[in-house]
Amino acid sequence: MASTTETKQKKMLILKSADNDEFEIEESVGVQSETIKNLVEDGFTFVPLPNVYTKALIKIIDYLKKHANKTDSNDEEIKTFDKDFVNTTFDDLFELVSAANYLHISCLMNMLCQTIADRIKDKSPEAVRKIFHINCDYTPEEEAKIRKANAQAFEGQFDESLD
Amino acid sequence: MMNQDRESVAVEGDIEDRISVLPRNVIDCILELLPVKEAAKTCTLSKSWRYVWSELPKMVLDYEFCDELIEESESNSEGSRWLEIASCSFKPPSSFLGFPNLVTLRLASITFSESCVIKAPLLANLILNCCDGMQYLNIVSPVLKSLNVCYRHSYIALNCFMNCKNLRDLGLVFAEVVDNPNHNRRSTLENLLVSLPALEILLLDSLFIEFLIAEVVPSNVYLILVKGTNDNVEAFLKCLKTPGCLQLPSTSSAPSLLRIFIEQPIGFDFRNAGHKLSRLPRASPKAELVCDLRVGS
């Protein structure tokens, strides 16, 4: 909890996660999210986020704090932070990208989508299915037919790994 | 190997498919960041992924893709004689060499926003359907045989087709003609028609009915089709009733003309007017006027 004097100096917001944990952050940090910004503009200081779980919210608050203090001198530091931020499992990335989408944080959303895109690129359809938890409902014949119709896309070697 | 994979996916099946968990705009955003070939591969993931990639709001056919397309068109004469591009904006790189083997090109719902030259030396058939910014388009196709342009609210600059001496079949439906500021609309189409000596079939929107009274129809034209539209039924009928309207193309200007086919404007009962029209005297004795009395579809 921030001290009373600090609260007076800086406007604070409380974010409440889907699992009912509350986080206090500075308004200037929070308004990087369009969703939060709109609520702040309407006079709200308590922001329930029913679609964002604590685990993702902690990471996102970290991201917002880091990016709120962006200056010319800490550019490298932020790049390193971003690199570590996305160095996680696919399931975490999906959780984060859903939250970033809900919160309308476009730079985070782009970074996460780019990471996911880079990591599924060159993967075999089987590997992508596992990553996205997709149940293949094609019969082998149907799949072969679709592959044949889009033969150009299936040239070359595939990466079978799931990381 | 494949079967094993299927089984292990089925075991994980209790976790919901990500396509139903991630919002569609997030899926779109991820796929848009993939090279188009990679995005296309997602069609084999499952039935619900079948068309996701093809419905992406934004798809960039990048250098790699274009290079391959061109390479293929150079090496494989069968594969790339026919090309259809739809629903995108079209900005080929300045290094784009055109389509050396393309015979048929169909562009549908394409937006051209900057000057665009497409060299297609073998192109015979061109269909432009609902394209925006056609005035930026310059298609260099000296052997073009068939040109069909269809759009309601667009303009076409016809200048690039002035040299298509082999054009046999011209259709302009719902399109207006971009004019040289010094000319009116009519003169641009007139100029085009007089520069097309091989033209045989002419399909015009009823906006252009007025051309039937001008002595511009090339001499080899044997069939004129006039397509009815809702928008200008009044003007269309007025024009048809103008004395002399269907007296042309006359024998001297269009000796080959056999038939003028007029389609009933949608939502308008053409029966009476059509009957009267077919009895109007015409200068071309061979030319038969046919009014399509089917209810417009």
UniProtKB/TrEMBL annotation, chain A:
Domain of life, per lineage: Eukaryota
InterPro entries: SKP1 (IPR016897), SKP1-like (IPR001232), SKP1-like_dim_sf (IPR036296), SKP1/BTB/POZ_sf (IPR011333), Skp1_comp_dimer (IPR016072), Skp1_comp_POZ (IPR016073)
Entry annotated with the keyword Kinase: no
Protein's pathway: Protein modification; protein ubiquitination
Residues in SKP1 component dimerisation domain copies: 108-153
SMART domains the record matches: Skp1 (SM00512)
SUPFAM superfamilies, alphabetized: POZ domain, Skp1 dimerisation domain-like
Gene3D superfamilies reported for this sequence: Potassium Channel Kv1.1, Chain A
The entry's keywords: Ubl conjugation pathway
All copies of domain SKP1 component POZ, residue ranges: 11-69
Pfam families associated with the record: Skp1, Skp1_POZ
Keyword Ion transport tagged: no
Oligomeric and partner information: Part of a SCF (SKP1-cullin-F-box) protein ligase complex.
Family as reported in the entry's similarity comment: Belongs to the SKP1 family.
Chain's role: Involved in ubiquitination and subsequent proteasomal degradation of target proteins. Together with CUL1, RBX1 and a F-box protein, it forms a SCF E3 ubiquitin ligase complex. The functional specificity of this complex depends on the type of F-box protein. In the SCF complex, it serves as an adapter that links the F-box protein to CUL1.
Protein name as catalogued: SKP1-like protein
Lineage of the species this protein comes from: Eukaryota, Viridiplantae, Streptophyta, Embryophyta, Tracheophyta
Automatic annotation (TrEMBL), chain B:
SMART domains linked to this entry: FBOX
Domain F-box stretches: 22-62
Protein name as annotated: F-box domain-containing protein
Protein's organism: Datura stramonium
Lineage of source species: Eukaryota, Viridiplantae, Streptophyta, Embryophyta, Tracheophyta
